[in-house]
Amino acid sequence: MKFVVEHVGKGGGRLGRLSGFRSQPDTTHNTPLSLISTAGGSAPHLTQDVLHLVAKRTAPLCVPAQHFVEHIKVLQNFKKGVAHFASLQSHSVCVTVHDPAKATPNGYNDKQGISFWTYGGRKILNADSYMELVEAMRPDWYEALSDADTPATASKKRLSKSLASSRAYIATCLHRHKESQAFRGCGVMVPLLGGHSKADRTRWIKGLPQLLGEEEEEALVSGYALQGLHTNGPEAELLTSAQVTELAGTSLESLPEGRVRQAGGGWSPEVVVSLVELGVDVFDSSFPHLVTQRNGALTFPHSRHSDSETRAAEGKENLEHQDKKLKVADTEEEEEKEGKQGSEEQGDEPQKKEEQEETGKKKKPNRKEEENGTKPATSVYEICLADERYVLDERPLLDGCECYACKNFSRAYVHHLINVKEMLAPVLLMIHNLHHWTSFFSSIREAVRTDSLQDLKALVHSAAEGSDKR
């Protein structure tokens, strides 16, 4: 795997190019970018065909090793790797240790190895067994094994154990990587650790040359993965820019410029922009997955242009699904006829709709809603379609959005699907959220290119001020 920095923005951030994947040698990806998060080898709630309506057929995937711990023998016998196993062979693959969208229980790593939480329960892998799994998965690049169980509450003793054990794990991973022909052409990401301690992060960075060696770093290491700030799941999105910036900056400031930098986790959009400012190149789509899981639809602003104008400006970065159509009515005439009939039947519905919205703003979630996980959205970047305020709302999930869900369905319809627990609800929400997230990264690249990253950050931050109006 090769990475080239093409432009460094005056307002922070950098544009780069990822290429040289062993499975997709002719494919190039522009950074900053978001990997498509997967669970068990497929994008959450989306079939292969639907995924390809939302994202490019070559979009890189984030495949957690966690979901394949119990299938090592199956993958070894299959011999073609996890991308072919999941019928996503047109995509390049990055293997991460844990699923960034699923919370990792704290305090279960020990001398035997790292704990992985699977459908069959807790499994422990050491560095050798982890590399055996990665070899069977045949990724284009992967994260070396480390003990990143260092949340903000971690003690000094826990941080010290984390760094000591991680050194041993990484050394074994690099040795196996160097000796095995199965890893030829595969990139390896070295973790950046130290938890929420600036001193420990500095100590880890200073110790990397000794751990890696100059020759090995030049020949083997493709990049670095920012880890140890959270234990995955919703915890990551609760971290603020103020909490992350100083710690991440400590880990990133002295890294070689020609190495890709990755930061997995469900970071909030504002934190993503802050990390881009610091030079992070690769993220994942676990945040839109988490939003979908709580019946939310992303609505935060990220572009001063409409979706169609952004597409025209970007040209070659257009999303595939915007050139495709799925038939939802026999003819346009039938659609118009149905629309007119609906308007006549609704009568004074707009007034009722406004009253419903006003009521919804004041309504607080009751105990039953909280137990069922349908309480209003927990972040300012989204709306919760389970909220009763949307029962008569005929607007799309987001005005101006060009995704299939927004062009064909209303908030009221999605609210109904959620209310009757219909499986189509998370499908439509995931289509919208993944499209919005992908468009967000297109806006990031444009902002870095035009040295307007600070303007984009302010625009994203404005979501908090305008959240009550949606």
Short description:
The protein is of the alpha/beta class and 470 residues long. It is built from 18 helices and 15 strands.
The strand line-up of the biggest sheet is 12-11-10-9-6-5-4-13
Question: Helical element count?
Answer: 18
Specify the helix fraction band. Answer: 40-55%
Distance between the termini: 43 Å
Question: Radius of gyration in whole Å, from Cα?
Answer: 23 Å
Rounded mean pLDDT score: 86
Please identify the oligomeric state. single chain
List low-confidence stretches. Answer: 306-377
Main sheet summary: 8 strands, parallel
Report the count of strand segments: 15
Q: Which class do the helix and strand fractions yield?
A: alpha/beta
Beta percentage is 5-15%
Assign an overall shape.
globular
Describe the structure.
This protein is of the alpha/beta class. 47% of the residues are buried. Helix 8 links the parallel strand 11 and strand 12. The longest helix is centred in the last third of the chain and has 26 residues.
